[in-house]
């Protein structure tokens, strides 16, 4: 078995990347997503790979899959009807939250309605103290009374999140056992099993998100496993995780909260892989699919990680690749508000009915339709010839907006693009401020079906020096999934001052996490591997309210070298904030351990060097910068290492179309990646 397959489901298309481990050839495919029948697109794609490339499913030895089932359930609020059991007199945990409004600059901003309304939150008699001692054992009568009301309300599942269960889960376990004894068929989840962190609200809302989607995700994964067997794929199904790793589908059925951001994380892993292969240290990835545009930072070749990413209206406090949604996807709908102002998004046409130019019943103007009107699309095959671009349909729907605005169809189409880029610009600026980086020393890597169309526009707005379009940008997220490592995170709340006396205690906590980590890796079938262990801790100066995740040297923990651990925190604090206070006592709030079993990474294949100048396949009439221009149309398959050309131009390929604006010069590297460097004189044009 020598084939590895990665699959990524997006809003419009489902992407496939197939790696032949012997030849290192990568073959790709796109099929339309089926949000109405999740999973069917995977089966259709497998049949497409058989028909197009003649692959034998029996040769598939590795199959990874990124799914949006969980995140879509949260965003659309179509998960389980849950009840929450918490400690008596703490029933308002979801309403109180952190007493912050989402947008402090919006006078009418308000917190979203919780996934579990107040009338389905039940307090029970019990109490665990902050040090883990059980002050009041679980009162079974209060649990049974809560269950009577829960069953009367026809709830489909229960999440148990009790005070200080991160320190001692005994009372949560006792409540779970009572529920299973009284109602054996009821779904029940405990917060200490999902992510045992300090801070009640963060632990509770993370557990609720997991419980809200878990049965739906579990059913989906079971159906997919059966369907893959029917196609002849016998390898174990793997699923990509929010932290950029993979785990078994069986693990995903019981721990789906770890895979809720799987698709977006896979894209960043794919981008980091390509950036490292090409020697790009600082890269800003821009993943634009059918619904959203997501940006992430790759610094010194490594993706940036964070906790507290948003899933729709809610933060989920698990480690994940730091991906921020900053704008609109190719299917985002343009509209004119009551004041005559052109807006783009947030609603998307998705894959059904999709943009008007796809001929699948779409009647609203989208960003994709704008590019069709501008002449960027419709010049060559698109989506592996799965659609024929109907330019007249796009002109019709964009024309409706043009009449409202009193502008030409072409000007309106380019305005749609500019409005979407302005939203991305604002979002990227927030990210720049958050991480304190200078975009002028970063290379923009656009991918996804719509990324290369918009990449030059965003780079021009941000005054970024260059854009790099990978060889298969439309399916880079799928590629990221099949090269992702087997990886998991573990956490233990410590909450003590760091001193010579407590350093030994930290070693004991590390040993406990390591036992859990190695047992998990063995369960994934990777016990034979030599995994890497990475330690970090949530640390702060005594008296501070929030912590910094600080990488710690394992040998310093083993030696009990408290000073080395303190120095690591002082350095990280100084890096982030420009100052530190070595004289102040340091607290360790939580210890974290990451275990990683590396997946073999194929080296990118070099392509043939150019022996002749690049020849355009045709000339296209394209609207750019408020004028019709005659621009060359190149096919990506014709590009050879060393080829160069000047913008404006269009580069067409099966999985996407690259729009090269005036002021950009293009060159092809030895791996076939397309580098677009801009003339600074054009950078402020938009």
UniProtKB/TrEMBL annotation:
Q: Does the keyword Coiled coil apply?
A: yes
Q: Look up the record and report any one GO term of the cellular component aspect.
A: cytosol
Q: Does the keyword RNA-binding apply?
A: no
A GO molecular-function annotation: acetone carboxylase activity
All copies of the Hydantoinase A/oxoprolinase domain together span: 203-488
Q: Which residues form the Hydantoinase/oxoprolinase N-terminal domain?
A: 4-182
Gene Ontology biological process terms from the UniProt entry: glutathione metabolic process
* One Pfam family per UniProt: Hydant_A_N
Residue ranges the record marks as coiled coil: 496-523
Q: Which residues cross the membrane?
A: none
What EC number(s) has UniProt assigned to this enzyme?
Answer: 6.4.1.6
Which positions fall inside the Acetophenone carboxylase-like C-terminal domain?
Answer: 501-672
The superkingdom listed in its UniProt entry is Bacteria
**UniProt keywords, alphabetically:** Coiled coil, Ligase
Q: Which PANTHER family match?
A: 5-OXOPROLINASE RELATED, HYPOTHETICAL 5-OXOPROLINASE (EUROFUNG)-RELATED
Q: What is this protein called?
A: Hydantoin utilization protein A
Specify the species. Answer: Bordetella ansorpii
User: Coding gene?
Assistant: hyuA_4
